[in-house]
C-alpha cells in the first residue's frame, strides 16, 4: 500500500490526514469548551506524522483555522482550507460561490492561518445561484496571483470536474465516500481522479452510524484485532492510492486509534468481503 501521495504533483503528504472540523464547538459553531484540548489534538496529530490537515472557513466559522494556526499546523503540515459554504447560527450550510466573496475569504483564511500562500484552496460546494465556471475562474485567478498554490473541488460530479479542469489544474476532489456509502456517481468521480492523477479526499470516511450496514466488517475487524471504524478507515486507504482520508475528532484517544488504522494491512480477501 502506497504511504504517500503528491498533491498537485509537488506536495508530498502521508495519505492518512486529519479533518479539523470537529475542533469547533457543538454543531460546528463557535469555539470548543476546551480550546487547549483542541490544540493538543492537532499537536498530537503532527507528532504522529500526520502532515495533511483539512479545514474550511465555515468551520466555526473561522474557529478551526485559528486553532490550527495556534497549534503550529501551518509550519509543519500541508493545510487545505475551503471557501464557498456559509455557516448560519441556526445550523444551516448555505452554498455561496460569489467571486467577490471567495476573493474576500482567501484573505481572511490566510490571516487566520498565518500564511502568505494557502497550500490547497478548495471550492466547498457548487452554488446553484452562481455560475460554476465563474466560481472556479476565481480560484484560478487566486492561484495565478500567488494567493494559493493548488486548487481543489468538493462535492462535485464528473462533469463539473471536467469543466473545472478546462479552467485550472485541479489537485484534489473532496466528496462523501466511505465503505458504507459509495454511489455510482462518486465511483465515477474516483475513477476520473485516478485517470488524471487527482487526489480524492473522502469526507466522512469513518461512516459513523452506518457500519452496521456493511456485511463482514465485524469479522474483518476481529481478524485484525481492530475496531470496525479502523477497518472502515483502512478500507479507504486500500481502495485507491489516490485516496486521502481525513478522519476528524476532538479526542486524542480517537485520533491515536485513527492513525493506528494506517498500519492495518487488509488482504484481497478482506477487501472482497467488504465489497
General description of the model:
With 275 residues, this protein is of the alpha/beta class. It has one domain: TIM Barrel (Alpha-Beta Barrel), CATH 3.20.20.100. Helices cover 40% and strands 18% of the residues. It contains eleven helices and eleven strands. The strands form three sheets. Strands 3-4-5-8-9-10-11 form a seven-stranded parallel sheet. Helix 5 links the parallel strand 8 and strand 9. Helix 1 packs parallel to helix 10, helix 4 packs across helix 5 and helix 8 packs across helix 9. It is globular, with a radius of gyration of 18 Å.
List strands and helices in order, with pairings.
Elements: E1 4-7, E2 11-14, E3 18-19, H1 35-47, E4 52-54, H2 63-70, H3 73-76, E5 78-83, E6 85-87, E7 93-95, H4 99-113, E8 118-123, H5 132-144, E9 148-154, H6 158-165, E10 170-176, H7 184-196, E11 199-203, H8 217-223, H9 228-239, H10 252-260, H11 268-274
Parallel strand pairs: 3-4, 4-5, 5-8, 8-9, 9-10, 10-11
Antiparallel strand pairs: 1-2, 6-7
Helix pairs in contact: 1-10, 4-5, 8-9
* Mean residue pLDDT: 97
Number of helices: 11
- Low-pLDDT segments: none
What is the CA–CA distance across the termini? Answer: 18 Å
Query: Under the CATH scheme, which architecture would be assigned?
Result: Alpha-Beta Barrel
How many structural domains can be distinguished in the coordinates? 1
Number of strands: 11
The main pleated sheet reads as: 7 strands, parallel
- Class inferred from helices and paired strands: alpha/beta
Amino acid at each position: 500500500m502506497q504511504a504517500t501521495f503528491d498533491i498537485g504533483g509537488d506536495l508530498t503528504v502521508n495519505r492518512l490526514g486529519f479533518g479539523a472540523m470537529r475542533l469547533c464547538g457543538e454543531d460546528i459553531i463557535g469555539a470548543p469548551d476546551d480550546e487547549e484540548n483542541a490544540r493538543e489534538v492537532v499537536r498530537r496529530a503532527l507528532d504522529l506524522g500526520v502532515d495533511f490537515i483539512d479545514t474550511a472557513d465555515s468551520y466555526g466559522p473561522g474557529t478551526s483555522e485559528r486553532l490550527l494556526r495556534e497549534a503550529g499546523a501551518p509550519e509543519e503540515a500541508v493545510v487545505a482550507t475551503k471557501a464557498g459554504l456559509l455557516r448560519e447560527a441556526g445550523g444551516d450550510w448555505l452554498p455561496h460561490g460569489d467571486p467577490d466573496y471567495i476573493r474576500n475569504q482567501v484573505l481572511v483564511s490566510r490571516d487566520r492561518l498565518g500564511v502568505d500562500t494557502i497550500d490547497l484552496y478548495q471550492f466547498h460546494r457548487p452554488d446553484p445561484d452562481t455560475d460554476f465556471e465563474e466560481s472556479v475562474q476565481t480560484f484560478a485567478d487566486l492561484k495565478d496571483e500567488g494567493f494559493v498554490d493548488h486548487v481543489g473541488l468538493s462535492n462535485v460530479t464528473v462533469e463539473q470536474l471536467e469543466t473545472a479542469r478546462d479552467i485550472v489544474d485541479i489537485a484534489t476532489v473532496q466528496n462523501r465516500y466511505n465503505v458504507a456509502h459509495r454511489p455510482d456517481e462518486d465511483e465515477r468521480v474516483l475513477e476520473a481522479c485516478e485517470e488524471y492523477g487527482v487526489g480524492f479526499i473522502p469526507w466522512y470516511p469513518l461512516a459513523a452510524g452506518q457500519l452496521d450496514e456493511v456485511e463482514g466488517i465485524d469479522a474483518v475487524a476481529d481478524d485484525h484485532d481492530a475496531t470496525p471504524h479502523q477497518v472502515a478507515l483502512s478500507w479507504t486507504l486500500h481502495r485507491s492510492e489516490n485516496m486521502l482520508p481525513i478522519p476528524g475528532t476532538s479526542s486524542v484517544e480517537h485520533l491515536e486509534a485513527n492513525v493506528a488504522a494506517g498500519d492495518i494491512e487488509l488482504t484481497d480477501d478482506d477487501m472482497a468481503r467488504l465489497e
